[in-house]
Design brief:
Low-confidence stretches: none
Largest sheet: 5 strands, mixed
Strand content: 5-15%
Order of helices and strands: HEHHEHEHEEHH
Mean pLDDT: 96
Number of strands: 5
Strand order of the largest sheet: 2-1-3-5-4
Radius of gyration: 17 Å
Helix content: 40-55%
Length: about 220
């Protein structure tokens, strides 16, 4: 699976911001953030991009900020990780049949990547989605990037919270509003709404594993 190099220079705007962050916060990761979780996981969760004090600081997706607090607690509730909190490398957190990535691997200015940056990182996302069976997209940008990575028409796979698609590739694609602080404060997304999305993901993953076990037993 391809991953961007630590000194990736494909997106000049993001490279410039990384340099600024390293000067201001030398303790930060301030580099592309790689996918987190086992390579053979059935579930892949796709977010937007690293946050300044989240993954950009810690080097782990959705770690160090409020969005990750809700996400990991929800994953734990549905058996996708061994602890309800992610603090950073060395904390003992293990994902179980789940991987987490972002549509854009580096911190974008104002948390808003431009189309060229999303498209440049799409080659990495295309590799990651091939490994999974169930895909959960967090937010419209992540959803569109995932549809593009799968080579599908956007018009046939529109974003909406709870929208679910069974794809010709065999993937199940489930969309959710992003678990950002803003969405939670405005009640656009509640913990119960995110919990329902991951309940669906859990059922889909279990169905995949049951089918795989049945096929193995028959052979």
């Amino acid at each position: 699976m391809r991953e961007p190099a630590p000194n990736c220079r494909r997106c000049p705007r993001l490279v410039s911001l990384r340099r600024e962050i390293r000067r201001a916060h030398p303790e930060h990761h301030a580099a592309p953030v790689h996918v987190f979780g086992p390579a053979d996981a059935a579930l892949l969760v796709i977010g937007l991009a690293p946050g300044l004090y989240g993954a950009n600081a810690t080097g782990r997706p959705f770690t160090g900020d409020d969005a990750g607090g809700l996400l990991y607690a929800t994953l734990h509730a549905h058996g996708f990780c061994n602890a309800p909190r992610s603090e950073g490398p060395g904390d003992g957190l293990v994902l179980q049949d789940c991987r987490i990535t972002n549509a854009v691997k580096c911190l974008p200015p104002d948390n808003r990547p431009v189309a060229a940056e999303i498209n440049t990182c799409n080659r990495f996302l295309a590799d990651e989605v091939k490994q999974a069976s169930v895909l959960v997209t967090l937010g419209g940008v992540a959803h569109k990037a995932t549809v593009r990575a799968l080579g599908l028409r956007q018009a046939d796979h529109r974003f909406g919270h709870g929208a679910t698609y069974d794809l010709p590739s065999g993937h199940r694609l489930i969309a959710s509003y992003h678990c950002s602080r803003y969405n939670r404060n405005t009640r656009r997304l509640t913990p119960a709404m995110l919990d329902e999305v991951f309940a669906r993901a859990r059922a889909a993953v279990d169905a995949v594993r049951d089918l795989s076990s049945t096929a193995s037993g028959a052979s």
